[in-house]
Amino acid sequence: MTPLSLFVLDLSAEGAGRLTRHDPAEPVIPVTDLGVTRGDGIFETIAVRGGVLQALGPHLDRFERSAAMLDLPVPNRAHWTEAIEAAAAAIPEDPRPGAVKFVMTRGIEGGSHPTGWALGFLADDPSGERAGGIKVVTLDRGYRHDVAQTSPWLLQGAKSLAYAVNKAAGREAARRGADDVIFVSSDDYVLEGPSSTVIARFGDTAVTPPVELGILPGTTQADAFTALEAHGVATLIKNLSPADLVEADALWLCSSTRGAAPIRELDGAARTVDAAWTELMNTDLDARRR
Amino acid sequence: MTPLSLFVLDLSAEGAGRLTRHDPAEPVIPVTDLGVTRGDGIFETIAVRGGVLQALGPHLDRFERSAAMLDLPVPNRAHWTEAIEAAAAAIPEDPRPGAVKFVMTRGIEGGSHPTGWALGFLADDPSGERAGGIKVVTLDRGYRHDVAQTSPWLLQGAKSLAYAVNKAAGREAARRGADDVIFVSSDDYVLEGPSSTVIARFGDTAVTPPVELGILPGTTQADAFTALEAHGVATLIKNLSPADLVEADALWLCSSTRGAAPIRELDGAARTVDAAWTELMNTDLDARRR
């Protein structure tokens, strides 16, 4: 990623949402911020194409949902929108997709207010993965499928900064010669990727797992389903097992800047890349005007 | 906590472990550091009493162990010791215990080297908790007792910066009117606190759970066991169930700056505070000269 623009959002009572622009390389976080000492905060990443923030509303909705799950203050939607739009305005036209990552931490330990910022950047070019597909391994997420209900303090379904496990899973995938991961619950429910949502094709139906499993509501998956439905495809939210993944006609991982990446290998077994559905989803995803 | 002194450790090849002193309130972390964007890093907190860094060796050992579990570079022990000692030197005599927290993150995303620092601070005075005891609830950690073996990418047993779950568990405890937490595995093994180790007394024997459960090797618990053994107490590393906790004669949570805090209430039931063993452990813990 290539950082372009940084706007720090003053979330103190007196600050009233004031924005200050900084060089993205400039240190702006003290070592006593709970974001860095505890991963205690939340984030979202929004793709920017043709100057448009894609799925801004759903990302803000999910940010609010994560804030509630972590007992953080309700984000002021107007302030955050202003910060995100300021960061997006600095993104030039480029073959690579632009993106804005926005973050709210619990703030300085012992302090009175959260820390917030929005970072505009250029993401990696996803065209190779979209065309050629990705190699994926399934990995145990360790949790039962129902922990979001039984044990909400485990924060499953919140997009928190505490992503060390997600990064460790990515390194495990690399050790196994793969590009990405699908997490599976300890009782064999297909969950999500470390930073993506699973879509599986069965005949003329597209399926994704339900958020009740403690996974993130996929903003890109939701728009991909809208695209598929516009082309007459049936969509279904349904539990999947690892065996179901083996049976599926085709598989994708969806995320904001990558769009829909087809899976060409799962746990070492070659999979058919469905170029038609991939094209259909990504054409509509890239063309989103909101 | 009251921050006192901050030393940033240059972990680049050219930096060669150079230390720079900063005001602890000064921002020194850019928003592209993986420590703050992913909780992708490790830390330790060492108590400082009478100018002495207590259990420096075991803390450095555990730091190395965490680094290996997260595929971070092997810490240069001489450089880290220098940084930690520099931070400790700024801690004045005070009724509150001093401490040094040292942190290594994976560094700037796309960069070539980790970020490191040591922060000297005064911790909260533990004398009230030591004398009066703490109220504790048991909470599900969601993982089986054996995930450290089956699924090492879950990083159980690493002291990572991704502590949002530990903080959320603390808030759940507060909602239940308690001060702290003992985590229990999904298959009913007693694990550890969010930032402490469990000790249980059964007659003349002190028991703590084994690190094979994916818990941290307790540096304070180890020295507390040495203190108990010096007074003729038998010590044992052994699996415990929640039912065993109910049966125990007395219970403690141990951590660096707090020492051994006796549990006066567990899941709403009053527990006997063992003042004699508490005093015995804390006297020796506070008197450690290394």
TrEMBL record, chains A, B:
Keyword Transferase: no
Keywords carried by this UniProt record: Lyase
GO molecular function list: lyase activity
GO CC terms in record: cytosol
GO biological process, one term: carboxylic acid biosynthetic process
Keyword Cell cycle assigned: no
Cross-referenced InterPro entries: Aminotrans_IV, Aminotransferase-like, BCAT-like_C, BCAT-like_N, Class-IV_PLP-Dep_Aminotrnsfr
Family listed: Belongs to the class-IV pyridoxal-phosphate-dependent aminotransferase family.
Name this protein carries in UniProt: Aminodeoxychorismate lyase
Organism: Galactobacter valiniphilus
